[in-house]
Amino acid sequence: MEIIYLNxxxxxxxxxxxxxxxxxxxxxxxxKPGEEEIYRKEAEVYFKCGDVIFLALEGSKAxxxxxxxxxxxxxxxxxxxxxxxxxxxxIGRALVERAEEExxxxxxxxxxxxxxxxxxxxxxxxxxxxxxxxxxxLVKDLKPSxxxxxxxxxLLGERFRxxxxxxxxxxxxxxxxxxxxxxxxEEGGTKKEFLELVNKALEGWxx
Length: 207
Fold this sequence. Notes:
alpha+beta; Aminopeptidase; 2 domains; five-stranded mixed sheet; two-stranded antiparallel sheet; 6 helices
């Protein structure tokens, strides 16, 4: 396997992988993907604007990519993708390690967003030493939306919602927790009451 800094010669390979990334993601989410030509144009724009993009090659075949952007002096992983037939060969890890080497020349941290439904991605990043920090996405629906297919989760007793996915992989206990939490809030439970319940349970376990 070889990892190269993306160049004009392999731009078409990157466009194809970028398109496959979004088609696969939308399938997992249960959403309709956009037009392939739109994804290909986006990929070309990112290449031309100077984003850091590495391509993994297996022989003559493009196996995967990672794309980094820079915002306000910080580097972000925007996408990482390995074609299904090349998974299980540590290509994703190699792409991340190459990206980290590049970022170390300019900064001492690499950031990314992961949707809470994407447990495979969360497990992958945690295995590589990444930890969760402080981002929460908020939304206000200004018109009626299709945001009914959601799970209820919480952070320090605050109620949050995450989209349901077609490809979810929650455990039975995780699903049970979300269902109980939804009922708790629907029946008038408050943040204060939730924290009291959790603290009492934790104290009981620790005793």
